Amino acid sequence: MGALEAVLQRERMGLTTREVGRIVSVGAGVARVRGLPRVQAEELVSLQGGLLGLAHNLDRDEVGVVLLGPQRTLSAGSLVHRTFRILDIPVGEELIGRVVDALGRPIDEHGAVRLRERRPVERPAPPILHRAPVTRPLQTGLKVVDSLLPIGRGQRELILGDRQTGKTAIALDAILNQRNKGVLCIYCAIGQRSSAVAKLLAYLRRHDAMSYCIVVVASADEPPGVQHIAPFAATTMAEYFMEQGRDVLIVYDDLTRHARAYRELSLLLRRPPGREAYPGDIFYVHSRLLERATQLRKEYGGGSLTALPIAETQSQNIAAYIPTNLISITDGQIVLSPQLFRKGILPAIDVGRSVSRIGGKAQLPCYRAVAGELRLSYAQFEEMEVFARFGTRLDDATIAMLERGRRIRAILQQPQYEPLPVPEQMVALLAASGGLLNATSIDKVALVEKVIRNAVTAELPAVCQRMESGIRLSAEDREDLLRVIRGAVNGITETGNDASA
């Protein structure tokens, strides 16, 4: 009996106090609650049926709660409990290759994910003293991007364009090009149709990319609160790997839908609207997210987080509210043109309106030898092409410039799902910038380019290896490349003449 009395003494019943509120009203993704006087901003609350919510608005008489799931079980009068914690998600190696929702729960029918560590969704961005300059390139495999709009590891490059102009295709090619490069990729789908997400997952699996990818999905069927936290959750997953010294690429597809979801939440919670009915803090929401992408110093892990946010424009209006905000936050933008897309010039990147503010600092030395000349030639061609449409008589030098520019534009075109390694890009760009394709008809540029790439990789493997390793090309290497390119072009020309004869 003595032992039993000792146990009872330790386990004496006591009273505990809990804050319990009641739902006053339920809306589309939000609920208004009374009776939680000490709840804190962004605190997680528990609702009926195991549903979670975020305390978003703290008014004097009631609390506006953002629901993180369907509200089918909720009604006026339902109880709400404080949890005394903030929203967190699981992070770890086990997430690689999986498809999860915004709360880190698997949705790919491959079983549960057992992770030991959880981290808050909202985390402060690394301070300035923890950041290092962006100097290492992140190759996308796209000739026009890697040569004219280089992206560095730790950079934030916005992809901007109208609907159906190939924004996701550029991001997907960048993901596919990271195979065997030690870069972990995270794709965050925000407010997209489930069919579009399923199609993208099929492409990733078909190209064996899921082995180094994490896909976070907050589809259009999800409540706006889930769509709002999805990019922050994906960034928390990415930061786990970045702080371990790894390089991570994250794609937000897209932040225009994310802004609309946040606008919907704000209007339902009766926050004062601003320009285009967006709340006044929408700029802070996106800057708080994108500032977490950076290159860390070696003493703080040395990892990097590269962000490729996607934004949708209407009628190419890049001066709209959300595109303008994102342009001012990011380190450059890739602007897609519907006119180029309709002409079949893919990827439909408008080089004149696109920019990378990192520039050649994060570019391999072999690109710098041709990129400046290539960009200047292409800009002159685009300007002269506009005047040539008026039907004016042109001198021989202008005609030669136009013909060379058309071949440069043709060489920059590239099919989807075919990212190219650095040496193959370089020889194609060198052939175009050096005028070695001037005698080739436009419709045969793709064929000639393929022959050139095969010839150089077969005859000059040592030079190709030096280009990929970041060693500056010597004059002898350049002459060897030009010699092989000329030989390949001449061989095609002679074969074509023999065939025509």
What can you see in these coordinates?
The structure is a single chain. By secondary structure, the protein is α/β, with parallel strands linked by helices. It folds into three domains: about 20-85, Elongation Factor Tu (Ef-tu), domain 3; about 90-365, Rossmann fold (3-Layer(aba) Sandwich), CATH 3.40.50.300; about 365-375 and about 410-495, ATP synthase alpha/beta chain, C-terminal domain (Lysin). The chain contains 15 helices and 16 strands. The strands form three sheets. Strands 8-12-11-13-14-10-15-16 form an eight-stranded mixed β-sheet, sandwiched between helices. It has a six-stranded antiparallel beta barrel with strand order 1-2-5-4-3-6. The protein has a two-stranded antiparallel sheet with strand order 7-9. Strand 11, helix 4 (about 195-205) and strand 12 form a beta-alpha-beta unit. Helix 5 packs across helix 6 (about 255-270) and helix 7 (about 280-290) packs parallel to helix 8 (about 320-330). The chain is elongated, with a radius of gyration of 27 Å. Residues about 495-500 have low confidence and may be disordered.
